[in-house]
Amino acid sequence: MASSVMPMPMSVAVSTVGLRKSYGDKLVLDGIDLRIPTGTVFALLGPNGAGKTTAVKILSTLITADPGSGDIRVGGHDLAVDPQAVRAAIGVTGQFSAVDGLITGEENMLLMADLHHLARGEGRRTAAELLERFDLTEAAKKPASTYSGGMKRRLDLAMTLVGDPRIIFLDEPTTGLDPRSRHNMWGIIRELVADGVTVFLTTQYLEEADELADRIAVLNDGKIAAEGTAEELKRLIPGGHVRLRFADPAAYRSAAVALREVSRDDEALSLQIPSDGSQRELRSILDWLDAADIEADELTVHTPDLDDVFFALTGPTTGPTTGPATVPNQPKENVR
User: Please, what are the averages of pLDDT over each run of 10 residues along the chain (336 residues)?
Assistant: First the structure.
C-alpha cells in the first residue's frame, strides 16, 4: 500500500515576487521573481549595468525596493517588515574587499567579532578557527595590506562567516583573481553549501556559474530572460550537433551519401549532424551506423556553452525567453 506520508516541501532561502527598482526615470529591475531553495547555489548573470548588484543590495537590506514591489523574503523573514532579522541571517561579500589593510588579518577578524557582539573568548576562538579554515593562520599577524588578492578575498569571506550566516550573497567574489585563487574560492563555496549554507552568486565568469550553480538566471533589461540549470539553459540555444569522424575514406563517403542534413568536412573526413544531444538521438545515429555496417572512429557530442547562452539572451536583438526547457543533464562534450 502506498505511504500516506507527504514529502516535506523544500525550504526556500530567498524569494521575491515582482521585485522592482528604479533610479529616477531608469527602471533597473522590472518585476523580478525568484525562488531559491535552501542549501543551493543560485547564480545571477547579466551584462554590466543589468541590475545584478542592485538586486543583491536590496536583498541584503542595503537599499530598498520600489513601493509596489511584491513579497520579498530572505531567510523566512519579510524584508519590508523585519529587515533586522534579515541582516542577522545573511552575510555579504562584495567585489570590492571590505578588509582594512592598515590592521592585521587577525585584527580584522576580531573587529568583526566585536561587531557581532561575541564575547571576547568566543570571538578569539571563532577568529582562530576561521583563519585556520581559510589557510590564513601564518599570515594572521601581518598587515592585510601585504596580502595577495586571493588572500584578501579569503579573509573577506572569513569575516563574513563570523556571524555564522545561513545565506551568503557573493557579489562577483572572484573578480581579479588568478585562476588558482579562483579555483580555491570555488572549493570554499562548495564546502559552505555542503554545510547547508545558501549562496546567492553574481559573477562575470560564466565558467564559474557553470561549475558552482544549481540554478542560473540571466538578467537583461531589468527582467529575467531565462532561468534553469546550466544544462537547461544550454538547450535553449541552437547549434548542438554530433560530429562523426572516419579514418576510412570509403566509410566516410558512404555515410555522407546516406545521411541527410549533414555538414561535410572532406579534409578531416568528418560529418556534422544537427542534434540536441539527447540519448534518443544518439541511439538513433548509432543504430543507423550499425544497420549500414559503417564504423565511425569517433563520435563527439557538442552542445552550446554558457557563453553562447549569455550572448544569445543579452544581445541587442534578443528578447526575453518564456523559460527553459526541462532536459536531462548532458556533458558539454562526450567522445566515444
Answer: 49 95 94 96 91 93 92 95 94 81 95 93 96 94 93 92 94 86 91 95 89 94 92 80 90 84 88 81 85 87 81 63 34 34
Residue 28's nearest CA partner among 74, 66, 60 is: 66
- Provide the b/e sequence for 215-243 (b: ≥16 CB within 10 Å): bbbbbbbbbbbbbbbbbbbbbbbeebbbb
Are 231 and 327 in contact by the 8 Å Cβ rule? The answer is: yes
> What's the CATH number where 160 sits?
3.40.50.300
94 plus 169 within the same structural domain: yes
Q: 57 lies in a domain?
A: yes
Domains identified in the chain, total number: 2
pTM to 2 decimals?
A: 0.76
Q: Same domain for 201 and 259? A: no
